[in-house]
Fold each of these.
Amino acid sequence: MCGIVGYIGKRDVAPLLLEGLQRLEYRGYDSAGVVVNSPKSGALKMVKAKGRVRDLEARVPKRFAGTTGIAHTRWATHGAPSDVNSHPHLDPENKVAVVHNGIVDNAADLRAKLEAEGVVFASETDTEVITHLIARSLADSLEEKVREALKVIEGTYGIAVMHADFADRIVVARNGSPVILGIGEKEMLVASDVAALIAHTRQVVTLNDGEMATLKADDFRTYTTSGTQTNATPETVEWEAASFDMGGHDTYMHKEMSEQAEAVDRVLRGRIDDRFSTVHLGGLNLDAREARGVRRIKILGCGTSYHAGLIGAGLIEELARIPADAEPASEFRYRNPVVDPDTLYIAVSQSGETYDVLAAVQELKRKGARVLGVVNVVGSAIAREADGGTYVHAGPEVCVVSTKCFTNTVVAFALLALHLGRIRDLSVADGKRIIEGLRKLPAQIEEILAMEPEIEKLAQEYAGAQSMMFIGRVRGYPVALEASLKLKEISYIHAEAYPASELKHGPLALIEPALPTVAIVPNDDLLEKNRAALEEIKARSGRILAVAHQNQEKADHTIVVPKNEDELDPILMGIPLQLFAYHTALAMGRDIDKPRNLAKSVTVE
Ligand code: F6R
């Protein structure tokens, strides 16, 4: 999605902003732009370009000095990707510059009104209305001008504004799109993502919705859109700047897959309680009595996080015996759901900023529900909006497609399920068994990662397929869903995921030699049923790649993964298929870290 970076201080701002934009490249974008002020006159100078940050960089003139500036990477919503539609947007007198993430819902009405007053628009964007509204305000201060503009805007925004007549400041505001201030020594930064700040400072302030801030070189203040001071105090970001680098790997995806053992180790660390065969999850804000009162659990997430939620729901039902299910948050929020006071809702999101999930959480809270968050990014909107929850501690994930965050989210659900189970009816012996299984995970993940050369060969063999089927049963079905999503996202091979039990109810008609099937075949109580499905496919001359705990006779190839406890097997069985998707995409020459049409965090509808 779009990215914002801004700086005010003493340094030459353009290189710093371009470097910041590069750090945001992973979010997906189609154009970029930068504005800086002239140190002497305060006049605004702007360069914009359709394409990548390097296209913008090539256009920035040698003499482009300035010590205050704002920059943006855009992912087109209103108006096609083009130089003119790129942000920042300036008013005709070149006094006001605005960068904006989000969508102005009433842009068409506002545009018509402004045009009727004689305003000539340069672009097709919704953002440009904000620029004109600020430029036309007669208020005395920049803060008041921005506030007046925001009063008439409906929609979501994270904005940063510069004004040639108020050259000592940048004014920013947030409503539904992240804005994070970076607090430095005699310099201040702003960005939509800590990735763009971390090389300069780890002291940050995350604005709340409805909050604004004024940044000056040696000072900042925060206040609400109605003008009340909010006195935010900076927090320290734990992530290292180096964790945003490629670390010797060819792609972020490869780096992030290879980090999964240590990431799982991190989510387990300090949480296991051997004395009571349970785990402690500090931030849940749900005491034992309340946990016992929960009658049902509903998990909401999108995409990969929804798949993690499906595995989570299975774990909660198995270990805690609480009825649980998962639903795409994007669907839930539009179907006027019945909100039940005895249901515990869990919002799951790696970024903590996905708009569909955030909107579902806000709707639930409005209806009086209790909502927990299972989130990776500390201090993100969903984490703050929830009543409590747990962080998944995967570290930053830069690649657009999620791998280590998915794995850690599922482990976090296993911890939650164990915690709830041990408050309810899970025995000490079963608690111990699950803890032992959890402790084995990092070493078993390393074992799977070491199989990469073998998986690479298999991927090369299947890379020619036009389409692929993924099947799994009960615990294996969400694994199949996630593996199929990974393959489509980065290789663009069409893939379908079906419960193995549903094959004979329709999709079996598709099976033929040209449609390979990837089958999840754990060695659990459904093994024989899964083997029967393989027989059915083989009888129709379908090619089969199995992920299993022992070699499968009916399969053309089997990836044999280490066995854990039955309930925890899904955590491991998806990992070889991440590698499979990766090497398939690589064999097909795809841009792994930036798949077409996708962006890392979807902060708009
Ligand atoms: C796919 C992927 C997406 C996200 C989805 C929700 O690899 O990463 O499907 O899971 O867009 O994002 P988060 O988890 O940040 O809420």
Amino acid sequence: MLILGIDTSCDDTAASVVEDGVRVLSNVVSSQNELHKKYGGIVPELASRRHIEMIVPVVDEAMSKAGVDFSDISAIAVCHGPGLIGSLLVGVCFAKSLSYTKKIPMVAVNHLEGHISSIFLEESAPDFPFLALVVSGGHTSIYRVDGYGTYTELGRTRDDAAGEAFDKVAKLLGFGYPGGPVMDKIASQGDPEAIHFPQAKLSGSLDFSFSGLKTAVLNYTKKIPDSKKEDVAASFQKAVIEDLVNKTLDAAQQEGIKRVTLSGGVSANSALRRRIKEKAAEKGIEVYLPSIQLSTDNGAMIASAGFQHFKKGKLADFSLNPKPYLPLGSADR
Ligand code: KG4
Ligand code: ZN
């Protein structure tokens, strides 16, 4: 069964054709990095306009790369939130039009459920239950996943998302936008032990807080303007990673679960991938990571999650509206 997945939640226009929720036939992502670079961050109005320009060519390319026709598609899965309203609107309106004109059923997918589902596109996927750390530019949460569509949030960030912290620190170090991938590279040339940046202590909780860390980096660079940027990047990155890894593994132990997954843009970070594998192995916990390509936003993860909704008959109708705020596990899906 073929599902066409569409994601326009933020600054990437993405479409993909996936077979049976697990096999990626095509995965096309049109990045807007160049467009937003000169502003040092995403400009929502520009993002929305670029999605309008790109949605047709991106979907066309996904269909032709998969070598399929609309008559082969069983359902269109579209991300309807959370995300930027003007961006989400483009994907949702496009999916509705396509569904109407081609008479293909439509399913609505939560972006975070999409990120968690990216792991099912890999050769080795975890059995249920597992713990999922979703760590992206807009979100940082730990979920207990007991089955498709069954999520319990165990912890979340109380302020900035980890990706947002990467982006803001990259900006203040003068590395430009988007910050995560550059920080990853620069940090690998620095000493993570050079500077001790404090981690937020939220005792007894699996919540995160990254805004204090960002301020600590800012204060440090003001105090020592000629500090080695590679060391600042590496030390900042280490503080974020230690917190993400420790809380995720603590959550696994607390729940008595031996399997954890990472997903979302920050899970592409090479040091994070290394560290979680290392520490999990010490505790006898298995780690499942999506490929780098499927860590950041893509349509395949939406198609994978959408396949499960479609199998359960959870179709969306034309009253579907995008929702900028859409907690995972809420009834309104
Ligand atoms: O999942 P994603 O593509 O979009 C959202 O749903 O937010 O995540 C984007 C975030 C950005 O903040 C970006 O800087 C971060 O993921 N990111 C990284 C890396 N690659 C992307 N952060 C750290 N290291 C990376 N290699
Ligand atoms: Zn995302």
